[in-house]
Amino acid sequence: MQLRDFGRTGMQLSVLGFGCGAVGGLMVRGDPAEQERTIAQAIAAGVNYFDTAVQYGNGESEKNLGRVLQKLKPANVAVGTKVRLLPSEFGRIADAVTMSLEGSLRRVGLDHVDIFQLHNPITETGGGFALSVRQVLGDVVPAFERLRQQGKTRFLGITAVGDTAALHQVIDACVLDSAQVVYNMLNPSAAEELPTNYPAQDYGRLFDHTKAAGVGVVGIRVLAGGALSGSTERHLIAALAPEPIGSAMTYDADVDRARRLIPLVKEGFVTSLTEAATRFALSHPAMGTILVGIATQQQFEDALAAVQKGPLPRTAFDRLSALWQEFSGEPR
């Protein structure tokens, strides 16, 4: 398994991380024995980053990950978790952040996590579940820093969703170590300019900002919540079709566009759309580690096989660029 430098942290993370999220569902609703087998296989293959959150199954993901790690006792693995603040907690952010992390540590069975991340959207002025840039820099980051000083987390991060300009401001402040960034074959804008009137959020070459700030990147929504399988079918333990992040306005629209990328398979660049999506995400040098949602051990094995094939060839990117042009002007 290839290891990559993770920003300025000094950590080296496996290019394939282990996503414990609710979309795939293995670590939330899966069979305990299969959870253990899959994590054991991942560790044996060289995976050393495990990403969870209290929001995944109201703590079930953290509990299940903790149970398996305590049984397997692997050496040198990194764990990341997250806090999602409720609007009712915005007036007492420091206390809410502290309570959340302490609860996460109890569930995972650790005295600290390697990365603690804000799970709320970030916008210029806030509103709803979103936090403003001022709240993130003035309240969240200082609370995170206190937890780092107490030894409860090593590094600080965000899930980079919300308004593009706000995300740029927070990352440019150089107070974070990690950012979870949406990057997939339906929305490559974290890396490059989109075609004119392209139907997706423009993240404004976010990777340029993470690189300049020394921020490590965790690739998320690599399969666009499953849409980049090109199928609307979902495993029994997977979540219902999720709301898209950064791409179309509906999941069905994401699936329809994903199917229009099938020429990559038909023309022999890859054997499946999911392979293409996985290899696409790891192709960019800014990427530290990628997370692929999984429902079964077989899905993990498929992701591992794709990663072992390495980045997509340049000719595949050229073909993708032509396919993206066909989306220009369509409603999001």
TrEMBL record:
InterPro entries: AKR, AKR2_Oxidoreductase, NAD(P)_OxRdtase_dom_sf, NADP_OxRdtase_dom. It holds the Pfam family Aldo_ket_red. This is Aldo/keto reductase. Residues 16-324 form the NADP-dependent oxidoreductase domain. One of its GO terms (molecular function) is oxidoreductase activity. Coiled coil: none annotated. The lineage of its organism: Bacteria, Pseudomonadati, Pseudomonadota, Alphaproteobacteria, Hyphomicrobiales. It comes from Bradyrhizobium barranii subsp. barranii.
